[in-house]
Amino acid sequence: MTGLKNILEKGLEVRILKLGFIPSFVQGVGLVLLLIIFVGCSTKKETVQEPVVTETEHIVKKDENLEVILNNILSPQSAIEILNILTYADFPFRKCLPGDSIRVLKENGNFIKLTYRQTLTRKYFVFKNDEHLFVAMKYPYIDTVTCFLKGEVNSTLYESLLKTGETPVLVFRYADIFAWEIDFVTETQNGDSFYMFFEKTFCDSNFVEYLNIIATGYKGEIGEYHGIYYYDPDGNEDYYNLKGESLRKSLLKSPLRFSYISSYFSKRRFHPILKVWRPHHGLDYAAPIGTPVSSIGHGVVTYKGWRGGYGNLVEIRHKNSIKTRYGHLSRFAKGLYKGKRVKMGELIGYVGSTGLSTGPHLHFELHRNGVSINPLKVKIPRAPSVKKKYFSDFEQYRDSLLKYIEDLSEPVGEEISKE
Ligand SMILES: [Zn+2]
Fold first, then answer.
1. Beta-carbon contacts of residue 6 (< 8 Å; ≥ 6 apart)
2. Ligand 1 centroid, distance to 366 Cα (angstroms)
3. Which helix (H) or strand (E) holds 119?
4. Contact between residue 316 and residue 304 where contact means Cβ atoms under 8 Å apart
């Protein structure tokens, strides 16, 4: 154990709190491991004792819990002690997820140190020194960077955005903001331009995630669009156009993100299985089995289960006497039950081919006042605009933001090159 002491005394940025304290800060962990092993080797020459240092790593699998894992790697006594100290440290046991890594270091079979790497940004350590257990948590260096991205469409918007070096996640989020304004499949053209002002975080210089898209725009033959993220003092947040109108509607356009409609709403359609003419009171979206299906609006689940030709069906009641049905599902979302409140865009199930169905697709119905109507013909109102009392605040924010973006867009050095 002297190795560990040495390291602590060498002034690495290590602060350890005893049992029961809030986890603290540890850095230079890789170094800690290496030095322990090194100390182990260096004693070899003295031939006094030859501590055998072993390290085992376990990657958490689905439905495994920490208690079982620790009991497999450690003695029952050590396992209990470690579980206790982790409990003291408010270790988020419930968040043990597949892929988490647990490394245990032993010296002569005795526990020295446990490293639990939960995510890229979170690590826990338990180590033993002079028969005392210590727990620590590493808070890595997280950096938030504001980025500005501007470009022109020269193939599809999707590809053009990816060419800027960002990931599809950002592209989807961009497309989601304008989902009600622009059809990115049919309405965009080469030469159109886009911009995005957003934040992303890095952990020890590794990209972690995108935060907010602060403002974004699109300009082309179809017009000029801006989306400005704004939250008012009451806590309402949304993307608004320059007039302060929400870019969202009260219902989503479609329960699936990427798919095409394979059968439209009609009063008369030849049913492919029943071989009779029947009205088709909904839309069919062709999509592979397992494609996530989301509720198109906030609402309450009024049916979840098997229902005749629908196969696995979810029915949701929304405001304004609107009801939606999602049929032929292969399975339901985890934790979905009758009576559950769901949000707009929340996962409710997966595309399948259950019930009277010729192949994988989602059968989607929209009812108003108990009558099925064509979802494509429903005029769906916008979500609420910026409140009147906050409008001047919004205007001020909008103008300063646009001015800032304009300055950023100004090509650096252009004036010099003109000379
Ligand atoms: Zn159908």
1. 35, 39
2. 12
3. none
4. no
pTM for the full model?
A: 0.52
Chain centroid, CA 342 distance in Å: 17
Q: At what angle do helices 2-9 and 29-42 cross, to 10 degrees?
A: 130
Pairwise CA distance, residues 182 & 176, whole Å: 10
Q: How many Cα atoms within 13 Å fall on the side-chain side of residue 250? A: 13
CA of 265 to the centre of ligand 1 (A): 8
**What percentage of the chain reaches a pLDDT higher than 70?**
78
Identify the pLDDT of residue 299.
Answer: 93
CA angle 76, 31, 137 (to 5 degrees): 55
Contacts of 13 by beta carbon, 8 Å cutoff, 6+ apart: 25, 26, 27, 28
Beta strands 283-286 and 277-280: pairing type? unpaired
Please report the sign of the dihedral spanned by the C-alpha atoms of residue 172, residue 366, residue 295, residue 261. Answer: negative
Task: State residue 185 phi and psi, 5-degree precision.
Answer: -85, -40
- Confidence bin at 197 (pLDDT 50/70/90): very high
Which amino acid belongs to residue 387? K
Whole-number Å distance, alpha carbon 264 to ligand 1 midpoint, is 8
**CA distances from residue 58 to 90, 100, 114, 338 in whole angstroms, order as listed:** 22, 8, 11, 39
CA-CA distance, 164 to 247, in Å (whole number)?
A: 25
d(CA 122, CA 116): 8
Binning the chain into helix, strand and coil, the percentages to the nearest 5 are 25, 35, 40
Q: Please give the C-alpha separations between residue 199 and each of 77, 142, 147, 399, in angstroms, as whole numbers.
A: 47, 13, 6, 20
Domains of the chain: 2-138 (3.10.450.350), 141-248+383-419 (3.10.450.350), 260-377 (2.70.70.10)
pLDDT per residue as tens digits for the range 29-72: 332 332 333 333 344 444 567 788 899 999 988 888 888 888 99
Q: How far is Cα 312 from Cα 326, in angstroms, rounded to an integer?
A: 8
User: Dihedral of CA 264/266/271/274: which sign?
Assistant: positive
- Whether 218 shows a pLDDT value over 70: the answer reads yes
User: What angle separates helix 76-88 from helix 66-73, to the nearest 10 degrees?
Assistant: 140
Distance in Å, CA 363 to ligand 1 centroid: 4
Taking the centre of ligand 1 as the mean of its atom positions, its distance from the CA of residue 311, in whole angstroms, is: 11
Find how far residue 221's CA is from the centre of its chain. 33
Q: How far is the CA of 369 from the centre of ligand 1 (A)?
A: 20
Binned at pLDDT 50, 70 and 90, residue 265 comes out as: low
